[in-house]
Amino acid sequence: MFEYLLKRFLLIIPTLFGITIIVFVIINLAPGSPIEQKIQQIRFAGGMDGASSSDKTAVSEEVIQALKEQYGFDKPVLERYWIWLKNLSRLDFGESFSYEEPVTDVIKSKFPVSIQFGVVSFILTYLVCVPLGVWKALKNGSIMDWGSSILLLIMYSIPSFMLAILLIVYLAGGSFLDIFPIGGLYSDNYDSLTLTGKILDRVHHFILPLICYMIGHFTTLTLLMKNSLLEEISKDYVRTARAKGVEEKMVYLKHALRNALIPIATGFGGFIGVFFAGSLLIEKIFQLDGIGLLSYSSTMSRDYNVIMGLVFIQSILFLVGNIISDILYVLIDPRIDFN
Fold it and tell me: Which residues span the domain enclosing 197?
């Protein structure tokens, strides 16, 4: 197992190299570079200063060349990538063109929002969905099973951003009840609250966006758990256990459950990447300044360094998540041997 994990960790390096070079080339070939963004800002500033129309549109070649040298765009794409790669060895993603500060500091300032919602959503989803899926498998075909399945499918069919709007309208002072705050992570008087008050205030602000974060994955994981357990129950080794007189619940929970958890472990890596990536629409609606909003604004402003930093971090999360999935395989079923 150790040799297998060592190989997987070593494979992360060429995989990251391939991902980053492809993304770097694509974003550099896309129209609308940061230089063009800066030129537009200069022209707009000239217009605000009352310059003539000819002055507004005219930006000298010297200025353009100086901008290219300042941001490193006077070099070929592959040379710029090599420079970026050398800086990456020092965990230096460069400076953000938009924020004019190190990319690491920009991501650090946004990451707490996404990681809070990501961790809580991830834990709650697995804590609720796995037992719920097992319960639905035990009650398969019953009225409770059908009713909960219909409810889950309705939840799955509602877009998260639409649910966010509905929750605000009905529960956050839109037109009906005023139970929850509209957005943000905490209240204006947060610093003056006691420790218990701060925790309750955070929970109060978390509830609505957390529901929107979880709703789609909640349904997927629950039904996956149920169907996986039902599939295991139909296999020969379960019928053998039943023939020996083993109690029905023990057949489900002791013999079938462990094997049924393997498909759940398969999606573990993907869930990590999705939850920690943030959500643009949810963050926008609930006024949460997180990774999703940063990804969108960086793409629109062609902030290449921030884009590359986010791609690198999210790729790391996804690849490490896949390795964690492999470790979970062995913990769930020791018979699995990757060697």
Answer: 106-332
d(CA 64, CA 41): 12
pTM of the model: 0.77
Per-residue pLDDT at 190 exceeds 50? yes
Q: How many separate domains does the chain show?
A: 2
Q: Which two tokens stand for residue 193?
A: 């609250």
Last residue of a domain, one of 33, 54, 88: 88
At residue 246, φ and ψ (nearest 5 deg) are -70, 140
In a domain, 33, yes or no: yes
Of 88, 119, 137, which residue sits at a domain end? 88
The three-state DSSP-derived secondary structure of the chain is: CHHHHHHHHHHHHHHHHHHHHHHHHHHHHCCCCHHHHHHHHHHHHHHHCCCCHHHHHCCCHHHHHHHHHHHCCCCCHHHHHHHHHHHHCCCCCCECCCCCCEHHHHHHHHHHHHHHHHHHHHHHHHHHHHHHHHHHHHCCCCHHHHHHHHHHHHHHHCCHHHHHHHHHHHHECCCCCECCCCCCCCCCCHHHCCHHHHHHHHHHHHHHHHHHHHHHHHHHHHHHHHHHHHHHHCCHHHHHHHHCCCCHHHHHHHHHHHHHHHHHHHCHHHHHHHHHCCCHHHHHHCCCCCHHHHHHHHHHCCCHHHHHHHHHHHHHHHHHHHHHHHHHHHHHCCCCCCC
Tens-digit pLDDT profile for residues 267-284: 666 666 666 666 777 888
In this prediction, residues 213-241 reach a mean pLDDT of 84
